[in-house]
Amino acid sequence: MLQGKAILWTPFSLFQNGDRWLRGAGSRTMAFFMILSLLLLVLVTGNVLLSYWKQKKLAKLLPPGPPPLPLLGNLTCFDRVSACKHYPKLHQKYGPVFTVWKMTKPIVVLCGYETVKDALVNHGEHFSERPPLPTADINGKGYALSSDSKSWRQIRRFMLSSLRNYGMGKKSMEDLVHEQLQKLFSAISEKKGKDFRPIHLLGFAIYSTMSSVIFGENLDYKDPKLYDLVTATRKYIHSINLPLYQICNAFPVLLKVPFIRNLVINVVDDVHLIVRTYADAHKASIDITSPRDLLDTWIMKLKEEESKPGAPFDEKSIAIHVGGLLAAGTDTTSSSLTFCLVMMSHVPDIQERVQREIDEVVGHDRVPGMKDRPQLPYTNAVIHECQRTLDLAPIALYHAATEDIQFRGFLIPKGTTIIPFLTSVLSDPAHWKNPEEFDPDNFLDDEGQFKPNPAFLPFSAGPRVCLGENLARMELFLMFSALLQKFAFRKPAGAKDLDLKYMQSNKMAFLVSSQLCAIPRSAPPFSA
């Protein structure tokens, strides 16, 4: 009996006394699954040991960092929220360049202005790629999140050129913002001094402006098409944080399953459908001698490039890249503008100083224009300080090393993911007098004139700097200055004082829940 048991449970005995194992299908099936289980166990164990050995070997070359768990990495740095809480501590312990691990893949984190600038600007070409992000690649190669190195430069050059040349001989972007302000003034006035949540109205204003720029359609705030655009775009924007996307990016083999792949694509398909619908209508009425909007310029580019093999401009790219531009230029701007107004309601002395400056330079017969910005240094400084304090994007979009490179005394292998920690730049004590406080003097010289601060990098820096930076800056200045010219903003009765630390840890919850009271200023009426 003991020998028989040995035959049943000792793998080597499976090949001894074969007669006993060949009696009946049940015994043969049991033997097969036992051998298969043993082989799988050996393979898994070997893979774990090999991965751990590679991880240890690679770690000796990379910057220092917290010890990772085998296969799992540094669990506290898996998502952006927890990472933002731990990075400052790791920065203090390991210095401005350190390594964390996401499972078996290293991520090099860059902290402080000098380090981030050195990487993204001085070594910009060496850190200009994106790491593989499977869910982004199947939804749109070549755009902001895609790792497709062959097409993103061409697409970026074209889109920057289109934005720069927009409105030649027609309405400029500034004209479109001024038109939008009239609708925004009316919508706020309808509140009749009652408390309201500004992020909704300001969101409609920014989305409607972008609709004008991209599609040539200035949508009313009650138009169902605007609601559909906002809903679809926000679904697109937040898709990267969905658990489904996180799992598929960690285990890209799942995207080979048709059902899962379709789920990933469908998340962003709503905004693509909107763009395709507009594109079809534009194609039927386009005048190539007189483009009406950015979508017309994209369609013209498609026709120009369609005969060139391998060109990144095709029918599918219209929805992908125009949709991506729409996503990039909306919620970040409306969130920043919301915080600017909420901040003013908590610092009435600063708000009044801004209003005095606007009254003296612009008056009340017209709204402020971009030509007024050099003469409004304090207003400009307040806007910049609001953006710095809000720190809306603590972590820039991930970069990747284009080749093996020696950086700050460490070897960073080709393909390594790079994270610029922008919070550490916007609060770098070497470049900000009071980094933990709201202080417009951070952007003023001794004579009260606006002074750019090189560490102001809310849009990141280098070859991958935010595509819509100039448009966002223009919208923020024009809308903020015009709104403070027209209204005085007050916090609701009984509202608590603003806690900046709480706000920075709960940004979106804070912005969505914040309320304001807008009081028309006692000045002659005017229109945009």
List keywords for this structure.
21 helices, four-stranded mixed beta sheet, alpha+beta, two-stranded antiparallel ribbon, disordered N terminus, 528 residues, disordered C terminus, globular
What does this structure look like?
Pfam families: p450 (PF00067). This is Cytochrome P450. GO terms for molecular function: arachidonate epoxygenase activity; heme binding; iron ion binding; oxidoreductase activity, acting on paired donors, with incorporation or reduction of molecular oxygen, reduced flavin or flavoprotein as one donor, and incorporation of one atom of oxygen. It comes from Leptobrachium leishanense. Strand 1 and strand 2 form a beta hairpin. The N terminus and C terminus are likely disordered. The protein contains 21 helices and 8 strands. The longest helix has 35 residues. With 528 residues, it is an alpha+beta fold. 53% of the residues lie in helices and 6% in strands. The protein has a 4-stranded mixed beta sheet with strand order 1-2-6-3. A two-stranded antiparallel sheet has the order 4-5.
